[in-house]
Amino acid sequence: MHKKRNYRQRVKEDSSSDEELSSAQPLDSTASKLTTLSFDDALESDIAFIPRAPMAKPSQNKSTHTTNFEVNESKQEDLPELEGADSRMTLKPTENRGYAVFAGATVTAGQTLLKEAPYGAVIDEENLTKYCSSCFKSSSQPLSRCSLCKQLYYCSKQCQANDWKQYHSIECPAFTKIGKPVPTAIRCLTRILISRANAPVSYNRVENLASHKDVVPEKVKMKYAQLIMALKQIVPAKIMPNANDAMDLICRFTVNTMSILGSDYASIGVGLYTNVCRLNHSCWPNCVLAFEGKTATLRTIRDIAPSEEMCISYIDVMDPYPMRQERLYSQYYFKCQCELCIHTQDVDIRNALRCSRANCTGPVRYPDELESSDNYNETCTVCMTPVSLKLSDIHERYTRVSQILDLAGSLIKKDGARALLNLENCIRIGDNLLHPCHHILVRARQQIKDIAIDLKDWDKAYSTTKQLFDLYQSIYPKNSPMTAIESLVIAKMYSHIYPDHTWKSREHYVQALKLLEIGYDPQSSMIRSVRDELRKLEAEQAFQLHQQTR
Ligand SMILES: C[S@@+](CC[C@H](N)C(=O)[O-])C[C@H]1O[C@@H](n2cnc3c(N)ncnc32)[C@H](O)[C@@H]1O
């Protein structure tokens, strides 16, 4: 009760001060075309431009060309710096990739180079009930909901009070008035604008970031203009920028915002981090981001030589070359020329046929669209065994496999068991034709694992996780958190299925910890919880030994 009364009082104070505010600036030419759109249309415009790590569906636009991104010479005098970064990191302008971060000295694998709190961050819509909107941590207890807007959830009174003070007292009245979920991008932009209002000087860190405003297609700018309309309904007029500045912000937001990842490496929210976002992309990166709540931690996953560029991956590199290029261009406006893209343009395990020889894991080039004859003859890239197939048969089987995967995707929430049957069928048909690392088969296995866990079919979940672990070793760079997480899942499942096999469980946990310690900071809750588990297993082992020797 007490909390409720306090909130109401504060909201009242907040909205009464709003009435004295000046109105926002007029919209620019693109935005003004959209003034006739309803707020609902604008709310619908929570477009998929926010970087999502895994499982993102690429759009159909096939154009990929390079936009050389030179650093504006006139801005050289105010060269940005990396705040709070390890002294071995240097930010330098490049000819065609804007600024880039380079190693100033040798950096070995498994080092923390930077920890950064976001300029603005929010939990995404699907995860609002599962993660605290203030500390971004999950809790074993149900979270409490803001009793006014009924949209944000918190793990404690302290978190709720902190969030209220920093952000929510400003956004809550608008959320309450709207009375329906406010999309992720709009909530995040609102928080960025609140941070700007609280510390206007620090906003130059955002204004310095890449925006690509000059190459953003008009169609996309129209969507951004819709977002501006929606934002104006939420952000108090006194802190709402004019339409041009809002457009600049949205362009920067699109190019620089990161997915915030939970402990299973799935996206739980989004945030703008003005230092870590300076790292350019590589599909075969030498650095990764891990998150502790909403604090981003940059880690090296392999040794980096002096002057070598430090890169993270913006996308899930499970996707084959054309999909990655399309995604990177449509969101970030560049053509990736990393070592993976250069080496796998022709034969990519993520989009290859399988070798017909038993036990050979060599990929066979997938026929391209120019193939004219129905007889497709290729050789395995590893054992050179000739492969002869009918093109029509390849296309027919491929289409079937992708259709079944789509069907299973639509069934997952409604009927897990039926989705599982379809996915297993997809694997049966696909396994004879496609390379095991083919992205369709990997996606199908990921979904089988998730459904099996939901259905508590531990044997299936365990065997599928082991398969995924093996496949990830070829798909992702060495020491990638994706592989490390899978190793931890194997350890957890093993000790669940075989509670008495303490020795073997311990071995699994040791292997997982070894991998996790590269991508995660030693102080992170992830590492601490695995160490705790190991301690418990060691105590159990000691007890068992003691029992045996008595
Ligand atoms: C998050 S920002 C990275 C930092 C940026 N280079 C800067 O100057 O602030 C993303 C932008 O950097 C550029 N970029 C990132 N990775 C790149 C790459 N591998 N090749 C070319 N440009 C890249 C693209 O212009 C992209 O839109």
From TrEMBL:
<feature type="domain" description="SET">
    <location>
        <begin position="87"/>
        <end position="315"/>
    </location>
</feature>
<dbReference type="InterPro" id="IPR002893">
    <property type="entry name" value="Znf_MYND"/>
</dbReference>
<dbReference type="Pfam" id="PF00856">
    <property type="entry name" value="SET"/>
</dbReference>
<feature type="region of interest" description="Disordered">
    <location>
        <begin position="52"/>
        <end position="90"/>
    </location>
</feature>
<keyword id="KW-0862">Zinc</keyword>
<dbReference type="InterPro" id="IPR011990">
    <property type="entry name" value="TPR-like_helical_dom_sf"/>
</dbReference>
<dbReference type="InterPro" id="IPR046341">
    <property type="entry name" value="SET_dom_sf"/>
</dbReference>
<dbReference type="InterPro" id="IPR050869">
    <property type="entry name" value="H3K4_H4K5_MeTrfase"/>
</dbReference>
<feature type="compositionally biased region" description="Polar residues">
    <location>
        <begin position="24"/>
        <end position="33"/>
    </location>
</feature>
<keyword id="KW-0479">Metal-binding</keyword>
<feature type="region of interest" description="Disordered">
    <location>
        <begin position="1"/>
        <end position="33"/>
    </location>
</feature>
<dbReference type="Pfam" id="PF01753">
    <property type="entry name" value="zf-MYND"/>
</dbReference>
<protein>
    <submittedName>
        <fullName>Uncharacterized protein</fullName>
    </submittedName>
</protein>
<feature type="compositionally biased region" description="Polar residues">
    <location>
        <begin position="58"/>
        <end position="71"/>
    </location>
</feature>
<dbReference type="GO" id="GO:0005634">
    <property type="term" value="C:nucleus"/>
</dbReference>
<dbReference type="InterPro" id="IPR001214">
    <property type="entry name" value="SET_dom"/>
</dbReference>
<feature type="domain" description="MYND-type">
    <location>
        <begin position="132"/>
        <end position="172"/>
    </location>
</feature>
<keyword id="KW-0863">Zinc-finger</keyword>
<dbReference type="GO" id="GO:0008270">
    <property type="term" value="F:zinc ion binding"/>
</dbReference>
